[in-house]
């Protein structure tokens, strides 16, 4: 690595005579080095003093030629220092680090990240040396039972968490360091005996770093970020700290832990503690309520510091003042808090990389991230030079004209130009961040012209969602826009009633209302939903977390496809530590995607047929990702699956790749024990029992209701022998059953069968058998006679409940699907979708083109009606009960002009389809006297 000091900018001496005096201490410098030393020494009294004290070191170490190597040698020197010399030698090292980092910064040789990183690395080194020296003294006094010098490497179970800028490797030039000292109670048999010594060591460490002596100080050390500092000692047990955060932790503490880093001591225990704290810091749902907490902190800072009124540069605080560094940090941190629970890639400590990632993931506009990043760098450079003047832990611009002149000289800038630049940056940062934390509401929006039912509106105050003062405050600001959105619905009173049901079902409101306030377009979306699909609104009230997906950056993008879904869900599951958490994570993920499909359908972004395909791919992704998760949990108790494992076969609609919003899943499980009689786990099971119970575990994972809801209802009646057969079937038994015992309807069902999860080799064998069985072909006569018999039995058991019943009855979906399956079975060329089966029926010669067209068009119409019906309700569609919005959606998807016209069209279409099926069966299924029944 090239370590030469490459000078790209220079300070100018505010006091040229003083600059010349300092330069005289280092004769013989060449190139730009004399200007660098004169400019630095002639402007910064603090740095001039450091050059005077460390001139011999500068000459002997070669620091001005290769600064990084010189500082590395200085750090190595400290490792050999006797414990009693640590305080003195750390102070000497601090002078040298401070001097060389300043020169590298002022000269432009090092960028901001390298400057703050070097300061932070020295902070880690100093804190570690100070703590180990303090602990060594306690070990020598035998105050840490069970500990020896060998335990000093891990600081006897202690860890120092670096917080704030130190945690993010962003220390400023004259920064204090924020540390939280913790100890791992598990390292001690009697932790109460060791506790006083650990506390003493922590205090000694802090004194070593922060006490001012004749040699100066190392770092001002702040231990007040620990849990409840007014009542807890300076060193806290990890278990006690975790209990505090779980029960009493506040939003500002969550924000602080974004930057937390295990810096010194038992790093493994520190990392484990931070991982355990992850649910406290990173909430599962989008946390827009944190915005108001952040704004409250900002206002408290302003109140405490008096940062109100117009911006004035003299004395302005570059960190806490209007448009300052803290505003940018808050902007990044609270966006991270909002979304980091859902998107782990946002859990980044440094500010500028965090802004970049937030933009990449779509959480903030790219231009906003670039503006704030640019100004953050500029603000930090100004801050550093303010502190370089006198080594003061200040962030305030000089109040007098001489001070601003010195600052401009140290930066090599014109004073007036610098002042204008700083002011413009501060104002732009303020405008950007204020719009996020405290958006202008412009006063209350005018109430809609429509007069709503005041009795309904009045009772909202009694709902759980509005039980807290904070919720009522946010809702009061939202109410005009909400009522306006409802007033724009096709039937406003229906929309109001549906919104009332939505609001009544919400268990709490703060988070959701805050989300609406930060994302006003969600109010319009909610208006669409409650005005069109009240049943979907009721679902939303119980699962409002799915709104998170709308602002996740990709909600309205193109459908990603099965493989992307599968990989994404596997990643979501992998992030969780235990089985139940993995299942709940899968449920939350599925609900968000399911909601997305429904909204896309509702808003006309996808047609009903496309929505059906997306629902099916979502279900397949869920089953294929959960199957190995269920198996791994089961194997932990009973061993790995015997033999070659098991596959899950999708039947019916999932096999055909078309589902609706409320479809259940027709599944069967086929396993191959491969002559292995039992599993090999701690509690082994016979192969048949193993796979039966494993299948039941899968069904439970998919269908059991939990706090996160359920995934899918599961129907396994299509397995061999139906409900009388085992829930899992061995491959030999499956083959035997299909070859020798299956009914025609079971072979018809196989035309829509697909393996959707399980080992690839076994899946290939199962599908090869299925294909071989069906590709033999059938004569149409026997198949259609069996279909006619099935059709008669179904009709006798249940007819259509109304013209809007799209599934059961003459000429409806079930009958058309039977004809399509017959097409695949007779042709020996099974295809998944109904249209393909009807095409094969025509190509086989037993269905005319006109009959195929009639059945295909009727099926498409019924499918569209059914998709809308299942999106809006779990009951048979009733146009009179779905509201004006629902009827509009129904007409849009079917292309009908009115509900009456659609009703007539349905009756005519199903009648024509029934007549076509009657004609086909009468023609093709009649018994023949010749050998025409033989398979072709």
TrEMBL record:
<dbReference type="GO" id="GO:0008882">
    <property type="term" value="F:[glutamate-ammonia-ligase] adenylyltransferase activity"/>
</dbReference>
<protein>
    <submittedName>
        <fullName>Glutamine-synthetase adenylyltransferase</fullName>
    </submittedName>
</protein>
<dbReference type="Pfam" id="PF03710">
    <property type="entry name" value="GlnE"/>
</dbReference>
<feature type="domain" description="PII-uridylyltransferase/Glutamine-synthetase adenylyltransferase">
    <location>
        <begin position="312"/>
        <end position="437"/>
    </location>
</feature>
<keyword id="KW-0511">Multifunctional enzyme</keyword>
<dbReference type="InterPro" id="IPR023057">
    <property type="entry name" value="GlnE"/>
</dbReference>
<dbReference type="GO" id="GO:0005524">
    <property type="term" value="F:ATP binding"/>
</dbReference>
<keyword id="KW-0547">Nucleotide-binding</keyword>
<dbReference type="InterPro" id="IPR043519">
    <property type="entry name" value="NT_sf"/>
</dbReference>
<feature type="domain" description="Glutamate-ammonia ligase adenylyltransferase repeated">
    <location>
        <begin position="42"/>
        <end position="274"/>
    </location>
</feature>
<keyword id="KW-0548">Nucleotidyltransferase</keyword>
<dbReference type="GO" id="GO:0005829">
    <property type="term" value="C:cytosol"/>
</dbReference>
<dbReference type="InterPro" id="IPR005190">
    <property type="entry name" value="GlnE_rpt_dom"/>
</dbReference>
<dbReference type="GO" id="GO:0000820">
    <property type="term" value="P:regulation of glutamine family amino acid metabolic process"/>
</dbReference>
<keyword id="KW-0460">Magnesium</keyword>
<dbReference type="Pfam" id="PF08335">
    <property type="entry name" value="GlnD_UR_UTase"/>
</dbReference>
<feature type="domain" description="Glutamate-ammonia ligase adenylyltransferase repeated">
    <location>
        <begin position="526"/>
        <end position="764"/>
    </location>
</feature>
<dbReference type="InterPro" id="IPR013546">
    <property type="entry name" value="PII_UdlTrfase/GS_AdlTrfase"/>
</dbReference>
<keyword id="KW-0067">ATP-binding</keyword>
<keyword id="KW-0808">Transferase</keyword>
């Amino acid at each position: 690595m090239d370590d030469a000091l490459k000078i790209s900018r220079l300070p100018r001496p505010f006091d040229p005579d003083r600059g010349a005096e300092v330069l005289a201490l280092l004769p013989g410098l060449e190139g730009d080095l004399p200007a660098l030393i004169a400019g630095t020494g002639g402007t910064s009294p603090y740095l001039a003093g450091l050059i005077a004290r460390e001139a011999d070191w500068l000459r002997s170490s070669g620091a001005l030629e290769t600064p990084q190597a010189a500082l590395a040698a200085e750090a190595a020197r400290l490792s050999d220092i006797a414990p009693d010399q640590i305080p003195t030698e750390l102070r000497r090292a601090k002078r040298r680090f401070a001097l060389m980092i300043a020169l590298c910064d002022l000269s432009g040789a090092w960028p901001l990240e390298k400057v703050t990183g070097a300061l932070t690395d020295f902070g880690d080194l100093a804190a570690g040396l100070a703590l180990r020296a303090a602990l060594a003294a306690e070990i020598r006094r035998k105050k840490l039972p069970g500990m020896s010098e060998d335990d000093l490497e891990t600081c006897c179970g202690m860890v120092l968490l670096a917080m704030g800028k130190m945690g993010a490797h962003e220390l400023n030039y004259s920064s204090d360091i924020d540390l939280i000292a913790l100890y791992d109670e598990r390292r001690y048999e009697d932790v109460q005996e060791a506790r006083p010594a650990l506390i003493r060591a922590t205090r000694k460490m802090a004194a070593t770093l922060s006490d001012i002596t004749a040699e100066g100080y190392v770092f001002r050390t702040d231990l007040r970020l620990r849990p409840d500092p007014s009542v807890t000692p300076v060193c806290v047990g990890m278990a006690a700290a975790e209990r505090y955060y779980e029960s009493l932790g506040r939003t500002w503490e969550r924000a602080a832990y974004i930057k937390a880093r295990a810096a010194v001591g038992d790093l493994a225990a520190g990392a484990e503690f931070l991982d355990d704290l992850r649910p406290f810091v990173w909430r599962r749902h989008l946390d827009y309520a944190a915005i108001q907490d952040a704004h409250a902190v900002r206002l408290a800072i302003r109140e405490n510091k008096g940062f109100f009124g117009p911006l004035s540069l003299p004395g302005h605080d570059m960190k806490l003042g209007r448009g300052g560094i803290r505003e940018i940090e808050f902007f990044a941190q609270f966006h991270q808090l909002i979304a980091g629970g859902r998107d782990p890639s946002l859990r980044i400590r440094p500010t500028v990389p965090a802004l970049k990632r937030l933009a990449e993931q779509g959480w903030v506009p790219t231009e906003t991230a670039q503006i704030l990043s640019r100004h953050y760098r500029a603000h930090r450079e100004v801050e550093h030079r303010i502190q370089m003047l006198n080594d003061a832990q200040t962030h305030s611009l000089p109040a007098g004209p001489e001070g601003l002149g010195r600052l401009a000289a140290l930066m090599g800038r014109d004073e007036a130009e610098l002042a204008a630049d700083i002011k413009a940056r501060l104002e732009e940062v303020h405008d950007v961040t204020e719009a996020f934390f405290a958006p202008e509401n412009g006063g209350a929006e005018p109430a809609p012209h429509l007069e709503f039912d005041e009795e309904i509106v009045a009772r909202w105050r009694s709902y759980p969602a509005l039980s807290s003062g904070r919720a009522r405050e946010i809702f009061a600001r939202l109410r005009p826009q909400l009522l306006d959105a409802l007033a724009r619905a096709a039937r406003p009173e229906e929309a109001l009633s549906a919104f009332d049901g939505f609001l009544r079902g919400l268990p709490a409101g703060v988070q959701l209302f805050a989300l609406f306030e930060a994302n006003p377009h969600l109010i319009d979306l909610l208006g669409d939903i409650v005005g069109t699909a009240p049943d979907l609104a009721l679902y939303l009230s119980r699962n409002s977390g799915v709104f998170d997906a709308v602002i996740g950056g990709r909600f309205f993008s193109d459908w990603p496809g099965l493989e992307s879904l599968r990989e994404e869900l596997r990643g979501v599951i992998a992030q969780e530590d235990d089985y139940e958490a993995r299942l709940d994570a899968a449920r939350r993920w599925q609900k968000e995607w399911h909601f997305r499909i429904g909204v896309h359908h509702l808003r006309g972004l996808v047609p009903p047929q496309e929505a059906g395909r997306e629902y099916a791919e979502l279900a397949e992704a869920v089953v294929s990702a959960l199957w190995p998760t269920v198996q791994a949990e089961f194997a932990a108790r009973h061993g790995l699956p015997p033999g070659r494992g098991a596959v899950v076969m999708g039947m019916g609609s999932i096999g055909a790749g078309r589902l609706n919003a409320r479809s259940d899943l027709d599944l069967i499980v086929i396993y191959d024990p491969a002559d292995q009689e039992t599993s090999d786990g701690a509690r082994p099971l016979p192969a048949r029992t193993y796979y039966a119970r494993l299948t039941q575990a899968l069904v439970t994972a998919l269908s059991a209701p939990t706090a996160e809801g359920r995934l899918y209802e599961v129907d396994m009646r299509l397995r061999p022998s139906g409900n009388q057969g085992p829930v899992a079937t061995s491959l030999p038994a499956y083959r035997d059953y299909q070859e020798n015992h299956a009914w025609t309807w079971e072979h018809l069902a196989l035309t829509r069968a697909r393996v959707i999860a399980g080992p690839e080799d076994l899946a290939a064998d199962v599908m090869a058998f299925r294909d071989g069985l069906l590709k033999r072909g059938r004569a149409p006569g026997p198949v259609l006679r069996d279909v006619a018999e099935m059709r008669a039995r179904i009709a006798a058991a249940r007819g259509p409940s109304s013209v809007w019943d799209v599934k059961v009855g003459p000429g409806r979906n079930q009958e058309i699907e039977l004809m399509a399956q017959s097409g695949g079975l007779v042709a020996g060329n099974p295809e998944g979708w109904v249209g393909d089966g009807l095409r094969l029926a025509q190509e086989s010669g037993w269905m005319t083109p006109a009959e195929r067209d009639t059945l295909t068009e009727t099926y498409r119409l019924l499918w569209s009606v059914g998709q809308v019906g299942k999106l809006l309700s779990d009951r048979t569609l009733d146009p009179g009960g779905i509201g004006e919005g629902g009827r509009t959606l129904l007409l849009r998807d079917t292309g009908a002009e009115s509900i009456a016209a659609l009703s007539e069209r349905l009756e005519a279409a199903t009648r024509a389809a029934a007549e076509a099926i009657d004609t086909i069966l009468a023609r093709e299924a009649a018994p023949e006297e010749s050998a025409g029944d033989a398979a072709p």
